[in-house]
Write a structure and sequence with these properties.
Length: 322
């Protein structure tokens, strides 16, 4: 099913007690996982990524509570739970309607859970979450604002989302900044307090740099919006380090795994993009680039130097090494 169907079940209070959440939007997966498992006095067991242990997970759903509380199991992982193990966990919820199980799958194999027959006759609700459309994103941020007692109208929310290129997670996180105001938030407040991805995006600048494209206008824009030269340089070093990690991992294992490389799950399109870009450069090039960047950073941190000139010279030399 899709988010709209799950919303109807929530409204009608007809939700099941076991869920498999997957899809493109990690934000919505996490949001609904929290919604389904926020129950007072419940006995909650959370597993994140490689922490999952089948025997203890099964035992948690199978055990009875001495105080009549509900047992809740939450598994969040980029890796798929073995089919037989998943079925046993789901069956535990079928046998005990007081327990709740949520499996938040961050991986990209959506076909495994999207078929209506994927879980047989079980009451499990399998939900695929797509990136929210504009009006959905506005409603989500509005709900977050209401929860945090922030007064903000739909036009200002739309402006906030526009600054963050429609990223609901980033826009929702910004709402906390406005809790200090005891009045309605205006678009001017948003512009003054929010650091927008649409105005300055270091990742886009770095990708342009690595593609050997003209970058001076973008660099000027970045510096005018408050970034300093050392921060720009360290951001490039960090980005190249990630690419090198992707490069090494792919050479050894044949395919990328964001969780093992970065330490957290990332959207598939980002993983694919970084994987492809990482393989464009040889290990020797990464070594030379890191040596250049670290040397330039050290020069910038010396006193009485023209940091802008050093940065510009370094970026030109970076493109010559590619």
């Amino acid at each position: 099913m899709y988010k709209s169907e799950l919303d109807k079940h929530i409204q009608n209070r007809s939700v099941a007690n076991s869920f498999v959440f997957f899809g493109e939007s990690i934000f919505l997966i996490d949001m609904y996982a929290k919604m389904m498992t926020t129950i007072d006095d419940a006995n909650v067991l959370n597993y994140y990524h490689d922490e999952y242990d089948f025997n203890s997970a099964k035992g948690h759903l199978s055990q009875g509570s001495l105080f009549g509380d509900r047992n809740i199991l939450v598994i969040k992982s980029e890796k798929k739970i073995p089919k037989k193990e998943l079925e046993i966990l789901l069956d535990s919820c079928e046998k005990n309607p007081d327990n709740i199980f949520v499996y938040a799958y961050y991986g990209s194999d959506h076909k495994a859970y999207s078929a209506k027959t994927a879980f047989g006759a079980r009451s499990t609700m399998s939900v695929r979450f797509f990136h929210p459309k504009d009006f959905e994103a506005q409603n989500i941020v509005a709900a977050v604002a209401q929860e945090k007692n922030v007064k903000i109208d739909k036009y200002t929310i739309s402006h906030l989302l526009g600054i963050h290129n429609g990223d609901v997670a980033l826009a929702s996180n910004e709402i906390e900044k406005f809790q200090v105001f005891d009045r309605e938030i205006t678009t001017k407040d948003v512009e003054n307090l929010v650091y927008g991805l649409s105005e300055v995006n270091l990742d886009d600048f770095i990708k342009k740099l690595l593609a050997k494209k003209e970058f001076t206008d973008d660099l000027r824009n970045i510096l005018e919006h408050g970034e300093d030269e050392i921060r720009v340089l360290t951001a490039i070093t960090t980005y190249l380090t990630q690419l090198y990690m992707f490069n090494i991992y792919i050479r050894v294992n044949g395919a990328p795994n964001a969780l093992e490389i970065l330490g957290y799950p990332a959207p598939k399109f980002i993983v694919d993009e970084k994987a492809a870009l990482s393989l464009k450069f040889k290990p020797s090039a990464y070594s030379k680039l890191h040596e250049l960047l670290l040397s330039s950073e050290l020069k910038m941190k010396s006193s009485h130097v023209d940091k802008h000139a050093i940065l510009l010279s370094t970026l030109i030399r970076v493109q010559k090494l590619l």
